[in-house]
Amino acid sequence: MEHLEHFGLSRDPFCNDPQVATYFQGHEHAQVEKRLVRAVSQRKGLVLFTGPRGAGKSLIVRHLLDSLEEEIYEACLLLPTPGVADGRWVLARLAAQLGVEEAAEDRAGLLGQVYEAMAIVREDGRHTVLFVDETEVLADQGALSALQALLNLEYEERRLLTLVLVGVPELAESIGAERGLADRVDVHVRLQALDTVGAQEYLVHRIRRVGGSPAIIDPSALPVLIDRAGGVPRRLNTIADNALFEAYLAGRVSVDPTDVHCAADDLKLEGGVAERAAVLTPIRRDETPTAPPQRSRPQAEATIQLTEDDDAASIFDSAGPSTGPNAGMPDATILMTPEMPPSPGGLPDGVRGMPDATMILSADDDGLGSFDEPIPEPVAPRGGPPKEEEIDDLFVDLVEED
Question: Does pTM surpass 0.70?
Answer without folding.
Answer: no
